[in-house]
Design brief:
By secondary structure, this protein is mostly beta strands. The protein contains two helices and 13 strands; from the N terminus they run H-E-E-E-E-E-E-E-H-E-E-E-E-E-E. The protein has a 13-stranded antiparallel beta sheet with strand order 7-6-5-4-3-2-1-13-12-11-10-9-8. A hairpin with a 2-residue loop joins strand 2 (35-45) and strand 3. The longest helix has 9 residues, at 129-137. The two termini are 28 Å apart. It comes from Sulfitobacter brevis. This is DUF3108 domain-containing protein.
Length: 226
């Protein structure tokens, strides 16, 4: 997975362990410079959430494809199902997490398994990608805390690295690091990036308006459209 597909995770509502959350939804345009590559939509309703990415205008069509991720509570555990489809490959990942620990992981096709697809090797304190993005989108007072995401193949830490408040705009800097498992896009194995979240503040609730991610020459921006 390259930095572009990685954004499918980064554009998943608040603390999914609670129930009766109000329905929320955000839509982002995914941009590379002045070019719009596609869209990313996030929605939550009660104890379930959904993240949908459509990339249909990537350079030379290399990373065109779709991702649909769902997360819901089943028998006390959080179950994530992620379906990726592209011209390069298709993949379906199912993960169950309870109390921050991976309990079950299934990856199809099986040649997409990694060492971290074994739940016993996954560190404690993880959430699935949809919940992870929701923790970013739902921050209502200041920058989010560290978020540690398990996607069935690797563990990613999003760690605060600074913030600035100018008028009614809060900018939060984060370090994006793969801390266990393979990096993105073999054989490049990209394992780190700089991430920035921009929130509108003011009289109403704090609102996530932009996500940007940069690694080397890659610099991708997600701008809210709704």
């Amino acid at each position: 997975m390259s930095i572009l597909p990685a954004l499918k995770y980064l554009a998943c509502a608040a603390f999914m362990g609670v129930t009766a959350l109000p329905a929320t939804g955000e839509t982002f345009a995914v941009k590379l410079g002045a070019t719009t590559l596609g869209t990313l939509e996030y929605a939550s309703d009660g104890g379930s959430a959904r993240l949908v990415s459509q990339l249909n205008n990537t350079p030379l069509g290399v990373f065109n494809g779709s991702f649909t991720g769902t997360s819901k509570t089943i028998s006390g555990a959080r179950e994530f199902v992620g379906v990726s489809k592209s011209s390069r490959k298709d993949r379906t990942v199912t993960v169950q997490i309870a109390d921050g620990r991976a309990m079950m992981t299934k990856v199809m096709p099986e040649d997409e398994l990694t060492a971290l697809s074994n739940p016993a090797k996954v560190p404690a304190g993880v959430v699935d990608p949809v919940v992870g993005v929701g923790l970013l989108a739902s921050a209502r007072s200041g920058c989010p805390d560290t978020v540690t995401i398990y996607d069935g193949r690797r563990v990613i830490a999003l760690s605060p690295a600074g913030s600035a408040l100018e008028g009614q705009v809060l900018t939060c800097e984060f370090a994006y690091r793969v801390i266990a498992g393979p990096g993105h896009l073999s054989p490049l194995k990209i394992s780190s990036a700089k991430m920035q979240l921009v929130y509108a503040t003011g009289a109403g609730p704090q609102d996530l308006r932009r996500i940007s991610l940069k690694s080397g020459i890659f610099a991708v921006v997600l701008d809210r459209t709704d």
